Amino acid sequence: MSEPALLELEDISKNYGNIIALTGVTTLVNAGEVTCVLGDNGAGKSTFIKIIAGAHQQSEGILKVDGEEVMFDSPRDALARGIATVYQDLAVVPLMSVWRNFFLGSEPTKGFGPIRWIDRKKASRIAKEEMGKMGIDIRDTEQAVGTLSGGERQSVAIARAAYFGAKVLLLDEPTSALGVKQSGVVLKYILEARNRGLGVIFITHNPNHAWPVGDRFLILNRGVSMGNFAKDEITRDELIMMMAGGAELEELTRELEQAAAGDEALSHLAEEFAEEVGELEERAEHDE
Amino acid sequence: MTTDVATADVPAAAPDERLAYRGPIQRLLVQPEIGALLGAISIWVFFWAVTVPFGTAIGTANWLDVAATLGIMAVAVALLMIGGEFDLSAGAMTGATGILVILLVKDTAGGGAGLSLWIGIPLSFVLALGIGWFNGTLVERTALPSFIVTLGAFFVIKGAKLGFAKLFVETIQVGRIDEGAGHDFWRKIFSSVWTRNDHIFNSRDTVYVALLVVGGVAILLGLLELTYRRRASFNPGGLPIAGIGAAAGLVGLFALHGTEGTGANFIWSIVMGAGVLIGAYGIALWRFEPNPDRGALQLPGGLLRPAGLGTGLVILGVFFGLILDSAPALKPDRTVDTIFFLLTEQGLRAILFVGLSIVGLVLLLIAASRARNFSSTSGTVVSIYTAIVVTVLAFIIQSESDAPKFRAELFSVLLLVALLMATWAVVGLYFEQRRFPDEAPDRLGRVLAIAGVVLASVGVVFRLLFTTDSELPTLVGQTQFRVSILWFLLSAGLATWVLARTKFGSWTFAVGGSKSASRQVGVPAARTKTQLFMIVSAAAWLVGMLLAFRLQTIQASTGDGKEFEYIIAAVVGGTLLMGGYGSAAGAAIGAMIMAMSFQGIPFAGWNSDWRFLFLGVILLLAVMANNYIRKTAEEAS
Q: A93–B581: do the CB atoms touch at under 8 Å?
């Protein structure tokens, strides 16, 4: 690759006092690619986000933007470098209209001298166009964001970040609170953003969501990087195994079986779980 | 099936099937201030009905004056509440700024600073802004609820008012502002009056009626634009019909203006009404498309039941009205002097007649709007039937009532309502309702409707402001409109514009709706909130000036305890207590509602202590109505 990656992490670690939150994380984000960061709860995903978004600084390791070594002092700093974070709460105001939310904080104005007012027509038009580019047709931009579905709300936040010059989109668990169909819609927006040449970091705990859209996978478990793979270096089942930590899964199976002794309904469940884990392991080995 | 409309830059995308078209009425209901507006209209009608002077220029000047000082503050407090904060020191601040300016300009011998008003007024303004800045900064820095911070500020200001008044002028009455230099000039700004009886304008009623008619026609045309589907190319055949209608309407209007006597009035009214009907039909024929599928007349039970019940209730209401009136001893003397009038037999008669007729009419209207879903023919039949019932009711009121304003004014209003309903129904029979939003006609429709409302309001203002020669001898008191009303309208208009159109307005909604979200996208939340507090203190300063120049002397307790009235006005006007939603215009209307009840109760001859009961009921009703309207509107959207 001749051009430097949009964002490059080399051996990033983060300690909070004596607590090691993250160690040895290496990955990169290219333009027009989706890098998925996978991990179960407590895997260090939020620490990872905070470092890239500029809320915290890494303790060790190198962060490069466009090949240039940087250390973010604040979220504003990260934003200035073109890294836009879409948090789980989306930073939208539910009672306000779509276009007001889209331009909140950076409203286009017209007028003369100090007397300026919002160019409503322009704001409404751009919001509609930008949402259209994400493949979502907002007929009425006066609609309150609170009345949109979860996926559409996500798309408002993504389209807004893209419009205001983001090069790297950092999406924090965008599908976690959504149903199956809405998650699919959000995955589609992620692909749209990728096709528009943005680098996307997609943070999730659901490998089924990551696999179809990801070009690169970073797997975190208990603050440790389990590896950083391009899509052709790994299979879906390996991904799932690695994410959950194979040994832990087996242990969990045993525990579940123990607990189920004597309870028919539960033991049925334990059996199923064990079967599933076994199957998964088998397939992963087979793929190798 | 939609033919392409002459909208310019919108691509011919297929309409989103998830987005049902909402009619103009439904879209209007989403506005936060609409509940307050309906409330204001019913309260006005109520006091107009039970008192003699309320609807006159004197009564209007009276309640508008009260609404002005309340409204200036309510508008500012509404902005602050939309931004998610409260200011309990707002009331005390109005008195404090007045006392401050008086102390600044009072003679040094009397304990003042002896400054000129040219210095004292700007200086007091800056100090007032300082109080707001202090409140806002304290709330932001401590992150304590503004409720408690400004409660502290309230006591500080209250104490300072009393303390400094005693300290400098040795009494709690601080006066007088006319000791300051430049009083003549500033009195004009803050305390001039328009005395109606000094301004005679004999063509007043002609201007009034003309503006009302033109305004009404504009509203009708606007509603047509907003409701029906436009033709791809206009049909010029409708224009001559519209012309004939307009001509007939004008002939009727002028003949009505030029003739005397009931018989002639009646005939020319019919000519005018027919003109309106034909004109509206012609315009519709010219601009809109006929309904390809008109549908046969269907009258299923779901329709006949409300319609039948409605008719029954109206008949029952009329029956009670006639029966209970048969005892001549109970003929009311029209000075209603107690609220317990409603418990007498005459009161019972009024309640039964008015209540049953209104419920009946509402049922009929529900039936009409339901019928439109079955077929447009059914809708038309039920609407015209309802219009006929309204007309009959109008004539019964005219022949039976002994109060002139019911006999004449209510009669005309009901006839007008019936005429509009009939027009609407006849036009609706042939022209399809729109199913999809359509930007160009919507804009024209909105402009026409707004222009209509403005024209009609200008007409009403004309009628209120001027007097005629024939009226002069009958005028009892002097009618004075104070300049504070102008300040009120100005600040309400400015605040509405700022909220709807400026960055600051957007940020106000944002910091009230979700402070963390607005921070994340770069809205300066702390600064916005501080500025909102400063707006409240600036409004308090304005009210302080209005009070100081009107009263010359200000009591140390002036304004204390008023802060809840401002909050009530804002809430009645549709502002959410939690912030993030509301309107400045609504707060202004809320202030009018409160002023109307404050002034209407003594006008009705009732003990003015009843007003608190009234206030509480209004507050509860308004909150519930707003809640209900917002929910239905959001569900519908």
A: no
The candidate with the shortest Cα–Cα distance to B22, out of B219, B226, B218, B292, is B226
For the whole model, what pTM was predicted? 0.82
User: Residue A139's closest chain B neighbor by CA?
Assistant: B16
The conformation of residue A73, written as its DSSP 8-state character, comes to -
Mark out chain B residues that contact chain A at CB-CB < 8 A.
Answer: 13, 15-16, 19, 437, 497, 501-503, 506-507, 509-510, 513-514, 516-518, 520-523, 580-581, 634, 637
B473-483 pLDDT tens trace: 776 667 889 99
Q: Looking at beta carbons, which residues of chain A come within 8 Å of B518?
A: 91, 93, 104-105
Tokens describing residue B249: 């309407």
Nearby residues of A6 by Cβ (< 8 Å), 6 or more positions away: A29, A30, A31, A65, A66, A82, A167, A168, A199
The CA-based angle B478-B484-B488, given to 5 degrees, is 130
Read off the pLDDT of residues B365-419 as tens digits, 9 standing for 90 and up. Answer: 888 878 877 777 888 888 889 999 999 988 888 887 777 777 778 888 888 888 8
Among all residues of chain A, which has the CA nearest to that of B439?
A140
Contact B516 A89 (CB under 8 A): yes
**Is the Cβ–Cβ distance between B389 and B364 less than 8 Å?**
yes
Tell me the two tokens of residue B62. Answer: 């009276």
Enumerate domains of chain B plus CATH numbers: 63-189+479-636 (1.10.3470), 290-431 (no CATH)
- Location of structure tokens 């006092």: A17
Put simply, the answer to whether A95 touches B637 (Cβ < 8 Å) is no
Q: How far is B293 from chain A (nearest CA, A)?
A: 27
Q: How far is Cα B397 from Cα B402, in angstroms, rounded to an integer?
A: 9
If 0-12 CB within 10 Å is exposed, 13-18 middle and 19+ buried, where does residue A67 land? exposed
Give the C-alpha separation, B110 to B471, whole Å: 47
SS3 A153: helix
Work out the minimum CA distance from A109 to partner chain B, whole angstroms.
8
Complex-level ipTM: 0.77
DSSP secondary structure letters along B429-441: HHBPBP-S--HHH
For tokens 């539960």, what's the residue?
Answer: A266
